[in-house]
């Protein structure tokens, strides 16, 4: 029976504010201190905002001046689906829009520690024929269309809602967005098919931003209406029906004026960003939802998915930070669609591309007189590799006068000597060596093939094997030490040191 309950939705246990040890945990002292600092009463009203892309849940609380002030931001451990509203039962989408949470929606006996029902579908969702049920904000960090927090986080959020109800708030508002409705985010997602819906709910976002008051929400003609009031000559308040024609209503001028000014600034900034060519966000490539970076950093192979990754830092650096709650072992982080990732160009594969023919011809030609000199040519080249010569010179590059006359038709066919092989090894082990030229060394050399018909040069495929297309290695530099076609095998550093000592 329990399994059936869990499969039917995020949570279907009986909901109430009944006496329950978990549901009656006190508000933590740190939050109480923050309320004192921000001039709030413990039982004043709250308002909640959710953002998928940022993977954050904000709790706002009314201060004594009547305006809502941000009390605390909670990182979301897991949300599922894509950016965009929930449309039908089973689509795994976490809802977006404006919802009302009353005491009956609070669940102290949730299978996911504690929870509250978002109230999806609201009248707007129903007018569009959207389906779904039991969409929750809950603990356990596991989501199938919900917003999942850690148990410790949901205990705090639950306690704040409970105290607001004890203080007389009949219901608190939940605002769920795909992202913070800034001009930058709107420009980034301008080609998304949900943009018309997002612009509509941005109106409510703007009302809250300019007033810091909970916006009054109504529905008519299958759309949202915010802060509607009766006209001056009306005898009664307008009656709204989500599927019917909108009644006569007005928006208070002080609110309407402030919203217009904000929207004008946002539209001007949006136009500038689009004109500058702000990149358009990639559409969902099969990734299921997102996770805040602080949680992704704590999980093996963790990923933020459709949420934003760490900016200015890495998940490895965040791994040392303290997690806001206990992360259960069954957490399933967002996973990418590997087929879509494989189809995208991989930057790490660029060094494998063969260099142009002139560079290859110049590189393999070695002036024999330099090799037969009394050691000056070898050690001068070695000196240049150690930082005493030009950075573009390699140990096998002939003198300028020899290079100028070398062409593919006149390339020396003399087999490489022991000295030239030693030079090739030196170029691979000298610190600061320009590894971008090593790809040229691995390309087949026609001149060498002609010089040794019994051992035709073969393309060295080991470089590609050491650089998987989908998983960049932290040891990428090692891939540049592949063996040059026609040269002696590259030896280990210890073996090379002993050989070099013998030369000295």
Automatic annotation (TrEMBL):
Residues 431-444 have a biased composition (Basic and acidic residues). CDD domains: YkuD_like. Residues 365-504 are annotated as: Disordered. Pfam families: YkuD (PF03734). Residues 46-177 form the L,D-TPase catalytic domain. GO terms for biological process: cell wall organization; peptidoglycan biosynthetic process; regulation of cell shape. SUPFAM superfamilies: L,D-transpeptidase catalytic domain-like. Keywords: Cell shape, Cell wall biogenesis/degradation, Peptidoglycan synthesis, Transferase. Pathway: Cell wall biogenesis; peptidoglycan biosynthesis. Residues 390-420, 445-454 have a biased composition (Low complexity). One of its GO terms (molecular function) is carboxypeptidase activity. The keyword Transferase applies. InterPro entries: LD_TPept_cat_dom, Transpep_catalytic_dom. The active site is at 138 (proton donor/acceptor), 146 (nucleophile). Belongs to the YkuD family. PANTHER family: L,D-TRANSPEPTIDASE YAFK-RELATED, LD-TRANSPEPTIDASE. This is Murein L,D-transpeptidase YafK. It comes from Bradyrhizobium stylosanthis.
């Amino acid at each position: 029976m329990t399994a059936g309950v869990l499969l039917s939705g995020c949570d279907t246990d009986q909901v109430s504010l009944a006496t329950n040890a978990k549901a009656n945990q006190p508000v933590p002292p740190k939050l109480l201190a923050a309320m004192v600092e921000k001039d709030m009463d413990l039982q004043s009203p709250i308002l909640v905002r959710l953002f998928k892309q940022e993977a954050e849940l904000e709790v706002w609380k009314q201060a004594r001046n009547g305006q809502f002030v941000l009390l605390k931001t909670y990182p979301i451990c897991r949300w599922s689906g894509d950016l965009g509203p929930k449309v039908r039962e089973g689509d795994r989408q976490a809802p977006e829009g404006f919802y009302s949470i009353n005491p009956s929606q609070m669940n102290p006996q949730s299978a996911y520690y504690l929870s509250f029902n978002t109230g999806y579908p609201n009248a707007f969702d129903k007018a569009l024929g959207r389906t779904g049920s039991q969409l929750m904000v809950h603990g356990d960090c596991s989501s199938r269309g919900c917003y999942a927090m850690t148990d410790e986080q949901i205990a705090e959020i639950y306690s704040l809602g409970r105290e607001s109800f004890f203080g007389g708030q009949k219901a608190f508002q939940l605002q769920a967005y795909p992202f913070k409705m800034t001009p930058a985010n709107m420009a980034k997602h301008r080609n998304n098919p949900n943009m018309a819906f997002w612009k509509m709910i941005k109106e409510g976002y703007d009302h809250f931003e300019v007033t810091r008051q909970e916006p009054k929400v109504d529905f008519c003609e299958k759309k949202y209406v915010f802060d509607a009031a009766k006209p001056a000559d009306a005898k009664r308040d307008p009656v709204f029906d989500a599927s019917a024609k909108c009644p006569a209503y007005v928006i208070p001028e002080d609110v309407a004026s402030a919203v217009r000014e904000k929207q004008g600034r946002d539209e001007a900034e949006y136009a500038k960003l689009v004109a500058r060519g702000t990149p358009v966000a990639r559409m969902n490539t099969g990734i299921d939802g997102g996770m805040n970076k602080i949680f992704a950093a704590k999980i093996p192979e963790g990923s933020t998915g459709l949420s934003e990754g760490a900016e200015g830092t890495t998940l490895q650096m965040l791994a040392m930070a303290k997690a806001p709650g206990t992360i259960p072992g069954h957490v399933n982080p967002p996973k990418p669609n590997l087929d879509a990732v494989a189809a995208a160009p991989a930057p790490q594969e660029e060094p494998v591309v063969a260099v142009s023919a002139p560079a290859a011809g110049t590189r393999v030609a070695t002036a024999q007189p330099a090799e037969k000199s009394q050691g000056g040519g070898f050690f001068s080249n070695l000196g240049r590799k150690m930082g005493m010569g030009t950075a573009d010179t390699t140990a096998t590059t002939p003198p300028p006068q020899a290079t100028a006359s070398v062409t593919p038709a006149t390339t020396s066919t003399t087999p490489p000597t022991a000295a030239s092989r030693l030079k090739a090894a030196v170029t691979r082990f000298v610190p600061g060596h320009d590894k971008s030229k090593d790809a040229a060394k691995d390309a087949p050399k026609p001149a060498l093939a002609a010089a040794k018909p019994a051992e035709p040069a073969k393309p060295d495929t080991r470089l590609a094997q050491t650089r998987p297309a989908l998983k960049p290695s932290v040891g990428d530099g090692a891939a540049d030490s592949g063996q040059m076609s026609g040269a002696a095998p590259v030896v280990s550093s210890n073996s090379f040191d002993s050989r070099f000592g013998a030369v000295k």
